[in-house]
Structures are given as structure tokens and as C-alpha cells.
Amino acid sequence: MTCTYKDDLVRTSLQTEPILPGGYGFLKALRFVGDVLSHAFELVEACNRTLERRRGRRALLELNDHQLDDIGITREVANSMARRWFWQ
Predict the structure, then answer these.
(1) Residue 79: CB partners within 8 Å, gap ≥ 6?
(2) Most buried of 24, 44, 45, 49, CB within 10 angstroms?
(3) pTM
(4) By CB neighbour count within 10 A (0-12 exposed, 13-18 middle, 19+ buried), where does 78 fall?
(5) Total structural domains in the chain?
(6) Cβ pair 86, 50 in contact under 8 A
(7) What is the mean pLDDT of the chain?
(8) Quick check: is 37 in a domain?
(9) Strand partners, 17
(10) Per the domain annotation, does 82 fall within a domain?
(11) What are the two backbone dihedrals, phi and then psi, of residue 20, each rounded to the nearest 5 degrees?
(12) Per-residue pLDDT tens over the stretch 17-52
């Protein structure tokens, strides 16, 4: 029985050769890469939320007393919010 190129290609594509240390198969490697990318996107989103929070707190400092009164915040509250740590 002779093998054709197509048969050899199918046979070699079905073999699960480890591509990462520890014997990860192809599907496990894809899952691993997906998990890494997912965590990277979560980190980027967290940085964006932190920067947006910072922009909002700095914007409070630029408002005058009349504008702060319109949104129901005193100058003291605006100052204390602007002094918060980035994770708060």
C-alpha cells in the first residue's frame, strides 16, 4: 500500500508533538496562549480604568465652587477625592 502526500500530511498533522516544556500538546498550548492574552487584556483594561479615574479626579480640581455646588460636592470633598491613591 502506498501513501500519498495527502495521507502523510493528515497523519503528521494528527500527531501531538510537545511544543512547550512539560509535554504540552497543541491544544493545551493554544489554551495557554489564550490565557496569557486574556490576562494581558485585563491588565490593559485595569490601567485604562486607573487613568480614567485619575483624569476625573484632576477634573474635579479644575471646577470652581459654583460648578462643584451644581454636582453636590464641596471643595473639601473634591480635594480629598483628588488626593486618593490610584487604587482607591
Answers:
(1) 61
(2) 24
(3) 0.54
(4) buried
(5) 1
(6) yes
(7) 80
(8) no
(9) none
(10) yes
(11) -130, 155
(12) 555 555 557 778 888 889 999 999 999 999 999 999
Domain that holds residue 62: 45-88
| Residues above pLDDT 90, as percent of the chain | 43
Half-sphere exposure of 49 (CA within 13 A, CB side): 8
CA 61 to chain centre: 29
* Residue bearing cell 495557554: 32
Of 8, 28, 11, 12, which Cα lies nearest the Cα of 20? 28
The DSSP symbol for 15 reads S
Report d(CA 51, CA 39) in Å as an integer.
18
Query: What pLDDT is recorded for position 44?
Result: 95
Residue of 42, 20, 43 lying closest to 33 (CA atoms): 20
